[in-house]
Design a protein that fits this description.
Helix content is 18%, strand content 31%. By secondary structure, the chain is α+β, with helices and mostly antiparallel strands. Strand 3 and strand 4 form a beta hairpin. Helix 1 crosses helix 2, helix 1 crosses helix 3 and helix 2 packs across helix 3. The structure holds zinc ion (ZN) (2 copies).
Length: 486
């Protein structure tokens, strides 16, 4: 049977597509890389033509002009615009199987950014873009999903959680709604920007079982359409409405309390000024039945359930603290594109300007440089408490007051942390000095990620409580069912 690419696939196709995953992107900055080929036959294809077997062992890839040069472990050299390493026989992925690729950037731009080595089953393809390598892993969607569910969370999670993560990840891919990388010949990248994918590096027999048990199954609405099944790490107690995150509605997604039907946590829906403090720090947190809370998934158990690149706890509740000087330096750096340099002409001083939107706005107005921070105010909170507007009030060098408005939960999180703040569901607490300026700023918050769709730690909590995959999916998405599409 001929192969079907993901971009050609539709519900009527009736068979498994293959996917092209960008595992090394040109902005990662790799000019050369090492790939260790396993001791089983791989064929080399150069510019679409077979160039014979390639020796097992360490191969070096490097950019050479607009081509890629490959030297294999026997010293044989090849060059081409597309270098492909193709396994002669397809193999059932097991932990560590396939080609081992080194110096791969992961967690791009987030807290957990680092360089690691990944093992990748299927075909590897390398191209050069502006002096940097593009590395693509091409493989069947089901094998890809094994590498997603063991990267997003750990392959040691309960099998009903792994099945849930698998059908949700499969649905997100097959729904085809987000094409973020049209500049390169890939379907998705391997990172949080799309879905995390770490190849066979962390596969477990339980993860393989979860993928096989749900083969081809996707989350569909009552009309049979695959839903765009978003997910994030921890909703914080209330599942966020998609309108509040992406400024658009999505079938099957809505705000809801992440707890059983009779839970007392229902009193917090929606979050308001009157209940936000209690929601963030109240005594009820000790004994709540909210699925993503430490009362259901204890923090001490999380390290074995989280993905290998995740650090710390589940961030159901968190606190980040800055001195005023630290936060001023951070804002000057994160919002550098809106501040005028000294002597540069700038916009009107009395009108607040909008810093960022979704998609980001091109800045045509610049404001005078932030010298002293006066206040931070959060507005436009969604049902989960996530703010989608933040007012920054500050003084310029001449002591004049200005305001900037940062829009979208994503841009707020980007602006307020060296890498990325856990969520925009937080309250600002300030100590002020005699001059009335903040001396210490605490951000006391809930949740990790945008909070819409499936809550991964909540789904883990449900699986630990004995819920099955279908029940978990139907808790996070409304009016949906599971259907095998191939
Ligand atoms: Zn991506
Ligand atoms: Zn949750």
């Amino acid at each position: 049977m001929s192969r079907c690419s993901l971009s050609e696939w539709s519900v009527g196709t009736g068979r498994e597509p293959y996917i092209r995953v960008g595992v090394v992107l040109p902005p990662d900055g790799n000019e050369r890389m090492r790939a260790d080929l396993p001791d089983r036959p791989y064929e080399l294809h150069v510019n679409g033509t077979r160039a014979g077997r390639i020796a097992a062992g360490a191969a070096e890839l490097r950019v050479d002009g607009n081509q890629v040069a490959l030297t294999d472990s026997s010293g044989a050299k090849h060059r081409g615009t597309a270098i492909r390493l193709v396994p002669v026989e397809t193999a059932q992925p097991v932990q560590g199987s396939g080609v081992r690729l080194h110096d791969v950037l992961t967690g791009r731009g987030f807290h957990w950014q680092k360089r690691v080595s990944f093992s990748l089953e299927g075909t590897l393809e390398f191209r050069a873009y502006e002096g940097r390598l593009l590395g693509i892993n091409e493989l069947g969607l089901e094998d890809y999903l094994q590498g997603v569910i063991t990267a997003e969370m750990s392959g040691l999670c309960p099998v009903e959680f792994l099945k849930t993560q698998c059908v949700v990840a499969r649905s997100w891919v097959l729904a085809h709604t987000e094409q973020k990388h049209t500049e390169w010949p890939i379907d998705r990248c391997n990172d949080d920007c799309c879905q995390r994918y770490h190849g066979t590096s962390y596969l477990t027999p339980r993860a393989t079982e979860a993928v096989l048990a749900t083969r081809g199954q996707a989350v569909v609405d009552s009309a049979g359409h695959i839903i765009d099944a978003n997910y994030s790490k921890n909703c914080g107690g209330i599942i966020e409405a998609p309108e509040h995150v992406w400024f658009t509605s999505k079938t099957g997604q809505r705000a809801a309390v992440d707890a059983p039907a009779g839970s007392t946590a229902r009193r917090f829906m929606p979050i308001s000024d009157a209940n936000f403090d209690e929601f963030l720090t109240g005594a009820w947190l000790e004994s709540t039945d909210v699925f993503c809370s430490p009362a259901v998934v204890p923090d001490c158990d999380l390290p074995r359930y989280l993905g290998s690149v995740d650090e710390g706890g589940g961030h159901f509740r968190w606190c980040v603290e800055y001195t005023r000087e630290q936060l001023e330096a951070l804002l000057r750096r994160k919002l550098a594109h809106v501040f005028a340099e000294a002597g540069e002409s700038s916009g009107p001083a009395d009108e607040p300007i909008l810093v960022a939107d979704l998609p980001p706005r091109v800045m045509d107005v610049r404001v005078p440089m932030l010298v002293k921070l006066v206040d931070l105010r959060l507005r436009q909170r969604g049902p989960s408490g996530r703010a989608s507007e933040m007012d920054i009030e500050y003084l310029d060098g001449a002591g004049r007051t200005h305001r900037i408005v940062v829009r979208s939960e994503y841009r707020i999180r980007e602006a307020l942390h060296d890498k990325f703040l856990f969520s925009s569901a937080f309250k600002v607490q300030m100590d002020r000095d005699e001059a009335g300026l903040p001396s210490r700023i605490r951000l006391v918050g809930a949740g990790w990620g945008h909070g819409a769709g499936l809550c991964q730690i909540g789904a883990l909590g449900m699986a630990l409580k004995g819920y099955a995959c279908r029940d978990i999916v139907r808790h996070y998405f409304e009016g949906v069912d599971l259907r095998a599409l191939y």
